[in-house]
């Protein structure tokens, strides 16, 4: 019965199992996360807003209405300065309909192929919406970096092989465990997100920042 009492149960409004795993690692053992599908909801979660805030709220509200449970949703995007902040809220659909490119990452590498290093600045931004009881709270996270010139690494997902964060945690050799103390240091080796151990990426990522802020908030209201 101890197991029954130990965790706060939350549905994470995503079908992306990689994101679920990241969130579980970031939030740690005090939380039991599940997907809508694991709760019997397989409908596509709508995402029709023009901002990360609107989409994240839309996804969380959809789960709340359908399943009546405490839940959270994230929406994230990559803002490239050379492209005036694009693809931004449309990051997931960047290459959609463009028959020349089989995926988003390939299109971005092509579009940026002649852009010099100093003009390749970009950031991942995430907004997480938590709906718990009658409360709705949003948390924002930002990871600053640059768009690399080639794919590197096997970890992460999405654009991780071409995103070079400006700073990385100093504990990378041992990975970073939840709750461990680490410091940010300049990413002098130019490692891509996909070359960082999972814990290293989570320590700095836009979603990691949101999740840790959400975890702090949830602990503070207990
Ligand atoms: P969404 O938040 O699931 O709508 O994702 C938006 C887009 O950003 C998708 O194409 C994701 O692959 C990409 N994305 C979001 N977070 C990350 C990340 O941590 N690393 C790499 N790509 C990401």
Written overview of the protein:
The chain has 222 residues and is α+β, with helices and mostly antiparallel strands. It has a single domain, classed as Maf protein (Alpha-Beta Complex). Helix content is 28%, strand content 25%. It contains six helices and nine strands; from the N terminus they run H-E-H-E-H-E-E-H-E-E-E-E-E-H-H. The strands form two sheets. Strands 1, 2, 3, 4, 5, 6 and 7 form a seven-stranded mixed sheet that branches. A two-stranded antiparallel ribbon has the order 8-9. Helix 2 crosses helix 6 (206-220). The chain is globular and about 50 Å long. The protein starts with a helix and ends with a helix. The mean pLDDT is 92. Inosinic acid (IMP) is lined by residues 74-78, 91-92, 104, 124, 156-160, 193, 205, 207.
């Amino acid at each position: 019965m101890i197991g029954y009492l130990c965790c706060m149960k939350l549905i994470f409004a995503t079908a992306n199992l990689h994101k679920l795993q990241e969130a579980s690692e970031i939030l740690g053992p005090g939380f039991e996360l599940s997907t809508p599908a694991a709760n019997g909801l397989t409908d596509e979660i709508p995402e029709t807003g023009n901002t990360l805030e609107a989409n994240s709220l839309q996804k969380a509200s959809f789960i709340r209405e359908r399943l009546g449970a405490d839940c959270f949703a994230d929406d994230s995007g990559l803002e490239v300065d050379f492209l005036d902040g694009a693809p931004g809220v449309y990051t997931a659909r960047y290459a959609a309909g463009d028959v020349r490119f089989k995926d988003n990452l390939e299109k971005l590498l092509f579009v940026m192929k002649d852009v010099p290093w100093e003009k390749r600045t970009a950031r991942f931004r995430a907004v997480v919406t938590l709906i718990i009881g009658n409360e709705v709270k949003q948390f924002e996270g930002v990871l600053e970096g640059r768009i690399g010139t080639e794919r590197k690494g096997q970890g992460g997902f999405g654009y991780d092989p071409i995103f070079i964060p400006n700073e990385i945690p100093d504990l990378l050799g041992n990975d970073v465990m939840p709750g461990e103390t680490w410091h940010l240091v300049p990413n002098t080796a130019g490692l891509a997100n996909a070359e960082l151990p999972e814990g290293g990426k989570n320590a700095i990522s836009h979603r990691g920042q949101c999740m840790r802020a959400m975890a702090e908030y949830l602990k503070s209201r207990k």
